[in-house]
Amino acid sequence: MFRRIDRRWKAARTLADLGTLTADWLEGSLPGGHPGGYDRPDPETLPLIPTLAAANRARFVTDVSQPGWDGIGYDGHRWEQRAAVDGYIAAGPLLDRIVAAASAAGLLVEVDGRSIPVTRSQGQTKTAFGAQPPVSYVRHCWPRAAVPPILAAHRLLIADRRFGPHDRLWRVLDEAVR
Predict the structure, then answer these.
(1) Whether the predicted pLDDT of 105 surpasses 60
(2) Phi, psi torsion values for 163, nearest 5 degrees
(3) Helices (H), the chain
(4) Taking Cα atoms as reference points, which of 164, 70, 155 lies closest to residue 109?
(5) How far lies 34's CA from each of 3, 38, 42, 80, 81, in Å?
(6) Which residues pair with 115 in a beta bridge?
(7) FRET label pair with 30: which of 1, 18, 41, 127, CA 20 to 30 Å apart?
(8) Any idea where the domains of the chain sit in the sequence?
(9) d(Cα 119, Cα 141) in Å, to the nearest integer?
(10) 88, 156 contact by CB (below 8 A)
(11) 139-166 tens-digit pLDDT
(12) How many CA atoms lie within 13 Å of 71's alpha carbon, on the beta-carbon side?
């Protein structure tokens, strides 16, 4: 799996290392793919890159994110997404600041908690973020040296309460990490 990614991923040993590499990958300055199997960010992520890169450089290692959206999906049915971001963060002032800002803004926040539906269609949940993934998944997706800091970190999920094209989450996160 790590054959196509830049060798710097294999050397990452801390959340700071992973955050810097993830930010560089998001911005396109790190050649190759991401350890999670992504060649490049999805097109829907492009407007979020400045905020996601800042969060990663601050040491909130984002694992998955999506903008809010409401429209006709690939299958001709209505799909709804709520803005959401999920990732790994150490205990400390940054976690406290993000949780306080997101909570004050009325966003959904889960720290090492339950998963929350973030995409739905035809009355069914299609995607959920938030729950701590199994250790086997972490070992599969991240380079060996990065597994201990990921497993020691908290899993942080922030999501808008509403489905659809809302951007409050991104403004709140941007302010909290800068």
Answers:
(1) yes
(2) -80, 150
(3) 7-11, 15-27, 49-57, 93-104, 135-141, 147-152, 168-177
(4) 155
(5) 11, 5, 12, 26, 24
(6) none
(7) 127
(8) 7-177
(9) 23
(10) yes
(11) 988 888 899 999 999 999 999 999 999 8
(12) 6
Structure tokens, 64: 């998955």
First to last CA, the chain: 33
Confidence of residue 4 (pLDDT cuts 50, 70, 90): low
Q: Phi, psi at residue 41, to the nearest 5°?
A: -65, 150
> How many CB atoms sit inside 10 A of residue 43's CB?
7
Q: Which residues contact 116 (CB under 8 A, 6 or more apart)?
A: 84, 108, 110, 128, 129, 130, 157, 159
As a whole number of angstroms, the distance between CA 127 and CA 59 comes to: 25
CB of 155 within 8 A of CB of 128?
A: no
What does the alpha-carbon distance between residue 69 and residue 169 come to, in Å, rounded to a whole number?
13
With beta carbons less than 8 A apart as the criterion, state whether 14 and 149 touch: yes
18-70 pLDDT, tens digit per residue, is 999 999 999 999 877 888 777 888 899 999 999 999 999 999 999 999 999 99
Helix, strand, coil percentages, rounded to 5, for the chain:
40, 25, 35
